[in-house]
Amino acid sequence: MKRGKKFDAVQMKWEVQRKIAEEFANVPASEARRIQMERIKKNPILGEIVRKARKGTVAGK
Questions:
Q1: Distance in angstroms (rounded) separating the CA atoms of residues 15 and 22
Q2: DSSP conformation class of 37
Q3: What are the angstrom distances between the C-alpha of 16 and each of 13, 21, 53?
Q4: CA angle at 10 for the pair 8 and 13, rounded to the nearest 5°
Q5: How confident is the model at residue 55 (pLDDT cuts 50, 70, 90)?
Q6: Would you say the pTM of this structure is higher than 0.70?
Q7: Domain coordinates of the chain in residue numbers?
């Protein structure tokens, strides 16, 4: 018998996307993208991934 899910990744994805859409509803797309990339670069985990991707190195190698 299956137990109920405690974590639903798809539901979380939709919720995050909804919050982002609300936050940037009145911001031009190019400005929203710039703000989001600045936040990503400042993030200790995601920033490192972006830096490696731009250098052409593979994360984890």
A1: 11
A2: H
A3: 5, 9, 23
A4: 110
A5: confident
A6: no
A7: 21-61
Containing 13, the helix (H) or strand (E) segment is helix 9-23
DSSP 24: T
Q: Which residues contact 47 (CB under 8 A, 6 or more apart)?
A: 40, 41
- Copy the structure tokens of residue 18: 């909804």
Sole residue written with tokens 């250098």: 55
Two tokens, residue 34:
């710039």
Rg (CA), the chain: 16
Helices (H) and strands (E) in the chain, counts: 3, 0
**Distance (Å, whole) CA 32 – CA 26:** 9
The reported pLDDT for the residue numbered 5 is 75
